[in-house]
C-alpha cells in the first residue's frame, strides 16, 4: 500500500511538472500577443511552478526511500524543505512582480490584443484548477506537504489568473490602462503572502513544531479505542515527516503483569495507531508500572491488588496526554485533598 501511494504521489507531481511547463509557454505567448504587464506577471510566476514542481518531484522520490544507516527516521523531512523552497521562490518572484508593476504605473505602456490573450489565460485556469485540486485532495490523504504545497500553489495561480481576467475585462470596458499595472501589483502582494505562509509551515515542520490537528487525531484514536488495562497515557509526542508518522508515549499497565502480557498489550496499542494512518507509522511505547494511586482511576475488574475503589476517569485530551508526568499522580492528590 505504501509503495503504491508513493508511486501515485510521483505520478501526480510529474503531471504537475509537465503541465506547468506547457502552461508557462502559453502565458508567455499571451504576453507576446498583448504586452500586458499583468499577464507577464502571471507568466513569470508560472516559472516558479516549473522549478517548484521539479524540486517537489525529487523530494517526493527521496522521501519514499526506506530508512538507512544515515537516516534512521527516513527521508520524509525533505518534503518540508521542498515546501519552504517553493515558498521562498514565490516570495522572490513576487518582489520582481511588485517592482515591475510600480515601474509600469509610473511609466504606462500600450496594451493590445487583450481578448485574444485572455483566451489562453482562461485555458490555463481550467487546467491549473483541475490539477491543483487533485494534488490538494491526494496530498491531504497521503499527508504529503510537498503535494499539498504544490497543489495550493496551482490553486493560487488559478485565482490570480482569474483576477487577471477580471482586470482585462475592466480595461476593455473602461479603457483605463493603469488597471493592468494595479492588478499586477495586487497580484504580487498576494503571492508574497502565500509564499510567506509556505515558508512558515516549512520552518515549523523542520523545527518539529507540534501539529495540533495531527495530535488531536491521535488523541481521538486513543480515546475511542481505550482499553480498561490502559491505566494512563502520558508524554505523548507526535511528529510527521512526509507521509511517515512517528508516535512516542508512556503507557501505565498493572505492575504484576508478566512481560508477555505487557508486550501483547503494547503491540495491540501500536496496531491501533498504525491502522489509523494511511502512511508508514512508527510507534515507541515505554511501559510504566502502576502505583497505588492508580486505583482511583483504574477500571480493571477483579484486580487482585486494588487498594482503593474506582472513583472517576481521567479526561484523555491533548492537554493532558502531552504532559511529561503521570496523570493519575496529579489527579489523586486532588481527590485525597
TrEMBL record:
One of its GO terms (biological process) is intracellular zinc ion homeostasis. One of its GO terms (molecular function) is cadmium ion transmembrane transporter activity. The chain crosses the membrane at residues 12-34, 46-62, 83-102, 114-133, 154-172. It is found in: Membrane. Keywords: Membrane, Transmembrane, Transmembrane helix, Transport. SUPFAM superfamilies: Cation efflux protein cytoplasmic domain-like, Cation efflux protein transmembrane domain-like. Residues 13-207 form the Cation efflux protein transmembrane domain. Coiled coil: none annotated. This is Cation transporter. The lineage of its organism: Bacteria, Pseudomonadati, Bacteroidota, Cytophagia, Cytophagales.
Amino acid at each position: 500500500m505504501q509503495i503504491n501511494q508513493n508511486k501515485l504521489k510521483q505520478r501526480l507531481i510529474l503531471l504537475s511538472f509537465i503541465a506547468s511547463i506547457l502552461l508557462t509557454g502559453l502565458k508567455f505567448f499571451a504576453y507576446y500577443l498583448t504586452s500586458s504587464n499583468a499577464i507577464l506577471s502571471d507568466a513569470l510566476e508560472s516559472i516558479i511552478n516549473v522549478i517548484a514542481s521539479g524540486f517537489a518531484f525529487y523530494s517526493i522520490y527521496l522521501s519514499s526511500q526506506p530508512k538507512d544507516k544515515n537516516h534512521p527516521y527516513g527521508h520524509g523531512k525533505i518534503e518540508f524543505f521542498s515546501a519552504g523552497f517553493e515558498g521562498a521562490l514565490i516570495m522572490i518572484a513576487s518582489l520582481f512582480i511588485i517592482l515591475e508593476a510600480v515601474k509600469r504605473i509610473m511609466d504606462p505602456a500600450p496594451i493590445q490584443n487583450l481578448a485574444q490573450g485572455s483566451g489562453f489565460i482562461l485555458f490555463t485556469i481550467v487546467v491549473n484548477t483541475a490539477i491543483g485540486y487533485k494534488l490538494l485532495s491526494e496530498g491531504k490523504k497521503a499527508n504529503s506537504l510537498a503535494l499539498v504545497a504544490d497543489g495550493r500553489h496551482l490553486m493560487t495561480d488559478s485565482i490570480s489568473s482569474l483576477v487577471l481576467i477580471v482586470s482585462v475585462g475592466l480595461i476593455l470596458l473602461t479603457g483605463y490602462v493603469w488597471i493592468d499595472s494595479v492588478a499586477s501589483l495586487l497580484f504580487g502582494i498576494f503571492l508574497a503572502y502565500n509564499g510567506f505562509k509556505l515558508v512558515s509551515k516549512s520552518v515549523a515542520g523542520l523545527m518539529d513544531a507540534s501539529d495540533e490537528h495531527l495530535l488531536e487525531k491521535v488523541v481521538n484514536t486513543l480515546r475511542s479505542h481505550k482499553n480498561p488495562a490502559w491505566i494512563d497515557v502520558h508524554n505523548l509526542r507526535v511528529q510527521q515527516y512526509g507521509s511517515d508518522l512517528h508516535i512516542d508515549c508512556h503507557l501505565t499497565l498493572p505492575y504484576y503483569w508478566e512481560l508477555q502480557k505487557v508486550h501483547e498489550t503494547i503491540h495491540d496499542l501500536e496496531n491501533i495507531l498504525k491502522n489509523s494512518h494511511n502512511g508508514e507509522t512508527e510507534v515507541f511505547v515505554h511501559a510504566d508500572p502502576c502505583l497505588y494511586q492508580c486505583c482511583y482511576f483504574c477500571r480493571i475488574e477483579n484486580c487482585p491488588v486494588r487498594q482503593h475503589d474506582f472513583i472517576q476517569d481521567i479526561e484523555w485530551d491533548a492537554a493532558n496526554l502531552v504532559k511529561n508526568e503521570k496523570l493519575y499522580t496529579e489527579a489523586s492528590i486532588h481527590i485525597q485533598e
